Amino acid sequence: MLTKKNPTMAGLVLAGAATLVLAGCSMGGSTETADESMAPSMAPSTAPSSEAMEGDDAEAMDPAYANLVGAACAMYDEEVPDGAGSIVGMSQDPVAVAASNNPMLTQLVAAVSGELNPEVNLVDTLNGDEFTVFAPVDEAFAALPAETVEMLQSPEDADALTSVLTYHVVPGQIAPDMIAGTHTTVQGEDIMVEGEGDDLMVGGASVLCGGVQTANATVYLVDAVLMPPSMG
């Protein structure tokens, strides 16, 4: 089981029908172990991303900031400026550990660590190689229909959750300036990334903050859970 080390604010809210309890984490209308009022919203911010920073400020910046894109990056950096969940802190841990320290990824962490479905635990896999990860924020999981959540948490249908999660992962680390195009996911089907800079789209989802480094992965926080075409 993955152990979360939340930063100073507590944070991978199901709209509508049912409350889903995940070993102390809720994917329903509330989250029992996370104070969502304390977690930073990933709504676009008018603050500049690191891409807009020039001169001495950019040169003095930690390498973890070098490739950030997305309107929400500056806001997140302001809300979580230090600690294990900060941009610099995440760069020092393998991706599953880094995600567990990010207050916006509590539901994704539950999904990959066996809390959502006891038959699915991808922590060792994600920490064991280099990947590009499209990471849905908590609000993305909140938008899933109740019947979809019920399917993904069913031990009898563990392959469905595994398929969805691995569809968010591409082998190798891909920087924002190379991410546009078609990529074959770990799940086996292709995913399309369009746009550039702060305006990237992944399979119809918007990149809120991308180019986030971990010790073994490049992460793009997205605003929707992506479904493989074969499950459409």
Automatic annotation (TrEMBL):
One of its GO terms (biological process) is cell adhesion. The lineage of its organism: Bacteria, Bacillati, Actinomycetota, Actinomycetes, Micrococcales. PANTHER family: FI19380P1, PERIOSTIN-RELATED. It comes from Agrococcus pavilionensis RW1. One of its GO terms (cellular component) is extracellular matrix. Gene3D superfamilies: FAS1 domain. Transmembrane segments: none annotated. InterPro entries: Adhesion/Biosynth-related (IPR050904), FAS1_dom_sf (IPR036378), FAS1_domain (IPR000782). Residues 36-52 have a biased composition (Low complexity). This is FAS1 domain-containing protein.
